[in-house]
């Protein structure tokens, strides 16, 4: 029978192991921020920084992921013997976590203003100018409710619904159904107030497709629209990040005429796009109101 000292030693080992695991779990948000920061630099969405700072971000991220990988591969060892696994110590917080948190706090202060929901009566202008005030600072759920109301008023058969995700998941997914035409899935990150802060993925499928949202459509036309939509999200994010989700929803709703409206440039419906996409209908819907469909080449 083990003595008191052996029991105390075992308890101490387990306590140390749990502290290591808890430390890694608490560092996940910093890891995610660091990963996003690095990828935004590589994608050109964030201003490049000095080589030393970039290496620090990359080093922190690599070390953190190494910790998690070792934990996952040796989970049995951790459970059976608290000291069987030597985990590298995270030198946290992330080099950018403090700056990120400062920016988030600043954004929260700006977002406290009461959103204006009065619809502009002026004709013309960009979708960003006309729809910005309607959706500014709204949570995801309020944005969906306001969008549904707008669609009912305009008699457009477009629905946007929030899909169920696990509470532990750091993202929210919205499905946009343009009746008889296509389905779009928007994967976004939200803040503590439930507002969309960024869109991580937007993918478009045909109305009858049931592909996982991490795959692409089987049809070239919807792959092309996905490509165009990614550029649209970047444009909307740059100009009005606090109305991002609502503006994207309004823009996607205009694709209800995808297979019926001719190109506003050449007047034709089908046009040879490229060797990759072959002949396509007008897949580029402008950001101006009223929105007009174009073949990308006809608008260039």
Automatic annotation (TrEMBL):
GO CC term (a single one): mediator complex
Lineage: superkingdom: Eukaryota
Coiled coil feature spans: none
Molecular function via GO: transcription coactivator activity
Protein location: Nucleus
InterPro entries (alphabetical): Mediator_Med27
UniProt-listed Pfam families: Med27
Biological process according to GO: regulation of transcription by RNA polymerase II
Keyword Transcription listed: yes
Keywords per UniProt: Nucleus, Transcription, Transcription regulation
UniProt record similarity statement: Belongs to the Mediator complex subunit 27 family.
PANTHER family hit by this protein: 34 KDA TRANSCRIPTIONAL CO-ACTIVATOR-RELATED (PTHR13130), MEDIATOR OF RNA POLYMERASE II TRANSCRIPTION SUBUNIT 27 (PTHR13130:SF4)
Protein name, UniProt field: Mediator complex subunit 27-domain-containing protein
